[in-house]
Each structure stands twice: as C-alpha cells, then as structure tokens.
Specification:
alpha/beta, 2 domains, Rossmann fold, six-stranded parallel β-sheet
Amino acid sequence: MRFALLGAGVIGAVHARLISTLHESDPRTELAAVIDSDLDKATALAEEHSSRAYADAAEAYAAEEIDAVAVCLPSALHADAAIEALNAGKHVLIEKPVDIALDAADRIIAAQRRSGRTVSVISQRRFQPPAAFIKDAVDAGRLGRTTSGIAESAFFRPQAYYESGDWRGTAAVDGGGALMNQGIHALDLLLWMLGKPVQVSAQTGRVAHQDIEVEDLAAATIRFENGAVGLLLASTAAYPGLPVRLSVHGDRGTAVMADDRLEYFHSSDHVPAPPLSGEPLRDGWSLVDNAHLAQYEDFVAAIRTGREPGVTLAAARRSLAVVLAVYESARTGRPVDLQES
C-alpha cells in the first residue's frame, strides 16, 4: 500500500510517522510521496521518511504508483482534495473533520460511490480499547437501554495556537473552533454509543481568545432517536486542560472512559470488565497515538479485504451535521432538528 501524504504541516508530520511505523511491520505499506504547495516543507518531510516531494497532487499521482492518499490539509480544503484523489482512482483517508459543510461531505460521498474506492475519516478514539469495550457492551445490551451520555473535551489552547497559522480560527477555512477541531472526537464517541441524533440545543462563546472568528467554548444537549439525551462540552479555554471524558448510562449499567482508560464499569449482569490497561507504547507515543495507528491498520485492512472501514463517510457526515447544528442553535437561540440524507 503506497501512500501519498497531502499536506506537510504539523498533522501531516504525524501521519508521515504513522505510515512509516506501519512500514516497519508491513513492508508493503510505505510513504511514496509528500505533497504540499510549499515545496520546501514537502521536501523536508519527505527526506525524513525516504519519500519524494511534490508541489502538486496531479503531478504526484502521474509520477508515482500511489494506492491511497492521506488528506491533511486545512479543513475547508478536504473535499476538493479527496475528490481529486478519488477521481484519480486512489483510496482516501481524511483528517477530521470530513470538511466544514454538509454539501462538501455529500460531494465526497458521491465521488466515493462513483469510484468504488475506500474512504475513511480520522476518528481514532474509536480504536482505543476502552471505547471499543464500551461500544461492545452497549451493542450487547449489557447497559440495557441507553438513557444518557456525557462527552467532555475541556482542553486549553493558548492564543499562540490560533496565531500559528493564518487560517486557524477562521470561519472560512477552519470552519469552527473548539467543537469542530477538538471536541469532534468526543462527539463522535457519543454518537457512536447513543445512535441517531434528532435534535440539538446549544450555546457557544468566544470567552478566552482574541482575534478569532470561531468559538472556544460550546455546550449542547442532544436528543437521540431512542429517547436518550446526550450532554456535550467542548472547550479550548479550560486551563490547563483535562483529558477527554465519556460517560454512557443505561437502565442496566454505566460505563465511564477518562484519561484514555476505562475508569468505571458496572452492569446488572455483574460480569466485570476485563483488564484494558498496559498497552505497549513506543518512545514518545501516547495511548491516542496507538489508536491513531490502529485506525491506519483498519483502513489498510479494509482496502485489502473489501470491507467497510471502521469509520465510514456516513459516520463522519453525522458528526459534522451535529457540529453545524450546534452552531445554528447557538446562533438562533432555538433547537435544531436533524435530518439525515
């Protein structure tokens, strides 16, 4: 599986490291090209990973034998880049969010259907063992009927974070702030656990940062088709920042994931959770890095076997739809009903 990396920024460097790590255990998987309009940046990253640098995607696709493309560009550029890759016959892995507009997500979905290629969107927290365990418990009925859930991303980003790129904190390119770019991971877990969202009520604010167009605080109530209610908090204004926390409650049990570990589990079946700690970590890696690599492994396996990836375009579109509903509800002061296409 020969990858092209589209975007040589900070997140692109993370993906380059993941692909190179995959190569260590699976020599068939390698980074063939790094593409960035800033050729110097592309060259520097490519040299770190023994690949070639290009300033233009079409040039790279023509010059190299490439199977899959990892899209690591600013959010508003995701759809056009993904569609170009799909039209060139490549499989595509997109950094979150899928894009910043639903019509853009729908264009990717249409291109994927035309091409028959595999597309996934980064939501690596689904691949953490505690999250997977809670999902399995929900699906097996061990929590009974799910009644509520709470997803918290109480992070902190200094002002310098938003000043590190001229697109950061802009509505046109970043698409949103604490929820679109940080809290969407916890939101994805909440939707994964509780199912189809049908209504959102929310408030947002810009309370701790200057000269940005997006929120650094979002809070929402989400009502689900099965009657469950979810609470969501996303912030980049919570110094010094806390780990992601997810609670799922049912009428027969409760599960809590915090700091990347299963903090609490109790079910009326009285069967305890198995040990989920002790994942081996590479030097400098975190448990989330492990999950990120696991999503790459899932993506490659999905391509090779023809199955759906663990995170589908439909799931990524659902998360984006809720994010945009949060923004609309906060803007209008009214609940927003959700309708999936």
